[in-house]
Amino acid sequence: MLLRSRNDALVLLVLVNTLFFRSSALELTTRASLPDPLVFTPDQNWDGIDGQWNSFTLRVGTPQQFVRVFPATSSQQTWVVQPGGCAYTDNFGSCNEQRGWTFNISASSSWDPIGNFSTGVESELGYDSAAEYGYETVGIGGLGEGGPTLLNTTVGAMMSLAYFIGIFGLHPKSTNFSSFNEPSPSYMTMLKDEKKIPSLSYGYTAGNQYRLDKVLASLTLGGYDSSRFTPNDLSFSFAPDNERDVVVGLQAITASSTGQENQTLLAEPVTMYIDSIVPEIWLPTAACEKFEQIFGLVYDVGTDLYLVNETLHQTLLSMDPNITFTLGRTTSGGQTIDIVLPYAAFDLTAQPPYQGLSNSSLYFPLRRGSNSTQYVFGRTFLQEAYLTVDHERQSFSVSQCVFREDAQQKILAIKPLQASSNASGSGGGDQGLTKGAIAGIAIGTVGFILAVLALAGLVWRNRHLKAKLGRRISSAADGSHAGSEGIEDQGPNLMSKAELDGSSTGHEKWPMEFKAPNPEEVDASQTQIYEMQGDVPEGAEVDGRQLSEKEGMLYRERKYNGTDLEVSPVTPTAPPEYQRRAAPVNGCDVRRVPLRDGGTHGVSPITPVSDCSSGRWTRRRFSFEEEDGQHEL
Ligand SMILES: *[C@@H]1O[C@H](CO)[C@@H](O)[C@H](O)[C@H]1NC(C)=O
Ligand SMILES: *[C@@H]1O[C@H](CO)[C@@H](O)[C@H](O)[C@H]1NC(C)=O
Ligand SMILES: *[C@@H]1O[C@H](CO)[C@@H](O)[C@H](O)[C@H]1NC(C)=O
Ligand SMILES: *[C@@H]1O[C@H](CO)[C@@H](O)[C@H](O)[C@H]1NC(C)=O
Ligand SMILES: *[C@@H]1O[C@H](CO)[C@@H](O)[C@H](O)[C@H]1NC(C)=O
Ligand SMILES: *[C@@H]1O[C@H](CO)[C@@H](O)[C@H](O)[C@H]1NC(C)=O
Ligand SMILES: *[C@@H]1O[C@H](CO)[C@@H](O)[C@H](O)[C@H]1NC(C)=O
Ligand SMILES: *[C@@H]1O[C@H](CO)[C@@H](O)[C@H](O)[C@H]1NC(C)=O
Ligand SMILES: *[C@@H]1O[C@H](CO)[C@@H](O)[C@H](O)[C@H]1NC(C)=O
Ligand SMILES: *[C@@H]1O[C@H](CO)[C@@H](O)[C@H](O)[C@H]1NC(C)=O
Predict the structure, then answer these.
(1) Would the CATH topology of 37-197 be identical to that of 200-429?
(2) What sections of the protein cross the membrane (predicted)?
């Protein structure tokens, strides 16, 4: 070969390298230094007044105060309950325990106050609460569990009953407390910045008490636990609204009960948001009415709950229905997956003061939603479904959980999106190619030459063997036999090592074990199917495809629901701005849902920041006194 300059040689080397090797040596070194995923081990506790849910422990403040929380897929903040949150009862001790231990701001020396704001999560469902915000030290896990501790993280201390115990936000978006200060980063972003997790992603399932001998929740930050679910090959792209991104199309609901024909419960397909902050499943009112018909549920107007008495409970137990939710990327057509919930998943107990209840009661965790802003799959659904969310690629998957006595945790990492582009961009200088990259290319090229030699060797050997033994071609050409001896396997073996980059540390492409879809259905998030570098679409193309998928979803949304989702601009060429896309928090927007018995229990003595004190907020200290009338639905 005649090469006129060093540049030509490089171009050729790059070409060879891209065509035949999935990762350059440079990328390998970048990935080898990635941190492992963080497994956030749950407690043995089951908390909540809207059912019983497995909780997690955080260490908050200086000195540490321990609080129990639920993971919240829709929030980016940590929320704790203040002692004032027990003002509704005379028994502080039992309330303190029931609310997962309260956090006393005055007892912490590291609390750095920000101000009072509304939490603003799921306000469409009436969930708004006020909280006193500050920067505070928060550690993951109980004493001696070795979880990381981060300083200056965003914490909201609430008193309201809207959220009964605290939460640990899994969303990586940041919070804007005011338009003139820097947005405050989320806990997840800080974990990644401090190299505690490999990427802005997580895997979560809520656990349940009815399978085996109680199944604890599972939460993996920066990866997922592949032992907890049956993988499927359907992966979803985020919906465009970052306040409502983990959205699936719900195409059908089917009930199969003992001794009865299967029945469909959903007349019109809808889009559903998956949010672990919400306990119930919120469905269109028409679908709820179908549930009422089939199962004999009766809507309690006083509490907005489907309370279940002992008679009805026995009937439901004997029917023992399985409810199948059929999910797709959109509300009709395309590939679908089924998530099946047994009746046991719906057999929950509500306790006072939930929804103004005065006595504990069994209830069926189904809620009436009036439009697409209110259709939500809550924790009830996540008892049987495993949710893997990759915020960097803006994609997620939902899978049916498996429950095995002998299940061994198998944690797999989700890689960061920008690890490789960052590495080749940094320290590049004017030449464009760094010494590292050149070294990588050189190594790759040597590998290529070896591969060619090995291939030649293989061909020779195959012919040789063929002549002798007849048929051993296919297995010899298959690169997966990494363990075989001899120079023959050297080529394929080298390649598979490059593909598995960092597999020794448990990092695999996400979601590694999912099957390859049809070429037409290739989704931006399903990068696992590409065998070689040359097949992987560039970043811009990836985003472009995501956009068109989202546009399609919007279109269908308009067509089938007559509603219009808010479109946030996604530039096909720019990397997703997930880290700095902030959620607005409006201090003037303090609202809360009053208790059903007329709001005599004052539990939210939080006023909004003084900047907003134009008129009505200055007159009274207790926001609920003013808001009661206005927000009774
Ligand atoms: C909170 O901490 C302060 C300071 O340590 C203490 O005076 C106060 O009694 C505590 N409040 C509660 C409810 O424990
Ligand atoms: C936390 O915030 C305080 C006050 O803004 C600041 O003094 C301190 O340096 C910060 N600590 C870290 C680790 O950023
Ligand atoms: C958040 O604050 C920054 C300035 O710090 C501002 O540029 C941005 O528009 C704000 N975002 C929202 C959603 O308010
Ligand atoms: C519900 O599903 C379980 C597990 O798949 C099965 O054993 C049971 O027979 C099903 N029940 C009905 C009524 O279909
Ligand atoms: C009823 O639904 C179950 C679960 O979806 C399915 O296995 C079964 O075949 C269905 N039966 C009929 C008669 O369609
Ligand atoms: C139980 O509830 C069902 C339907 O909600 C109702 O028809 C029945 O009278 C109730 N039974 C008792 C004993 O309250
Ligand atoms: C609540 O329970 C108490 C004692 O069991 C009973 O006296 C009372 O009537 C119940 N209240 C309601 C509203 O059912
Ligand atoms: C959806 O329904 C809720 C409750 O009825 C209502 O407050 C909200 O405005 C509705 N949103 C839309 C977009 O129609
Ligand atoms: C990528 O580079 C940017 C700017 O140099 C930096 O802020 C960011 O932390 C880097 N990301 C990673 C994953 O290293
Ligand atoms: C926030 O509300 C609490 C409770 O009402 C009050 O003590 C505190 O001063 C308020 N903080 C700010 C910054 O307004």
Answers:
(1) yes
(2) 437-460
pLDDT per 10-residue tile (average), the chain, 633 residues: 51 50 46 86 96 98 97 97 95 96 98 93 90 97 92 96 96 90 94 97 98 96 97 96 94 94 96 98 98 97 97 97 97 96 98 96 97 97 98 97 94 85 39 43 57 60 48 32 29 28 32 30 27 26 31 38 28 30 37 28 29 29 30 28
- Closest approach atom of ligand 4 to CA 258: 13
Query: SS3 sequence, 502-539?
Result: CHHHCECCCCCCCCCCCHHHCCCCCHHHCCCHHHCCCH
Q: Which bound ligand lies closest to the C-alpha atom of 180?
A: 3
pLDDT of residue 463: 56
Residue 115 in contact with ligand 10 by CB distance below 6 A: yes
Atom of ligand 7 nearest to the CA of 358: 13
CATH of domain 37-197: 2.40.70.10
Nearest bound ligand to CA 34? 9
What is the Å distance from ligand 5's center to 321 Cα? 11
Peptide bond into 63 cis (omega under 30): yes
Domain ranges of the chain: 1-34+432-476, 37-197, 200-429, 487-578, 587-632
* pTM (2 d.p.): 0.71
Please identify which residue in the block is written with the tokens 């897929």. Answer: 73
Q: Which residues line ligand 6 (CB under 6 A)?
A: 296, 298, 309, 311-312
CA dist., res. 130 & res. 118, Å (int): 4
Q: Kindly tell me the number of DSSP H helices and DSSP E strands found in the chain.
A: 14, 30
| 200-429 carries CATH number 2.40.70.10 | yes
75 CA to centre of ligand 2 in angstroms: 23
DSSP letter string over 304-351? Answer: TBEEE-HHHHHHHHHH--EEEEEEESSSSSS-EEEEEEEGGGG-EEE-
Q: Which ligand is nearest to the CA of 150?
A: 2
Tell how far the Cα of 99 is from the centroid of ligand 10, in angstroms.
Answer: 21
Question: Hey, whose CA ends up nearest to atom 2 of ligand 1?
Answer: 107
Separation of 262 CA from ligand 5 center, angstroms?
6
- Closest ligand to residue 189's CA: 9
pLDDT computed for residue 443 by the predictor: 56
pLDDT score at 76? 96
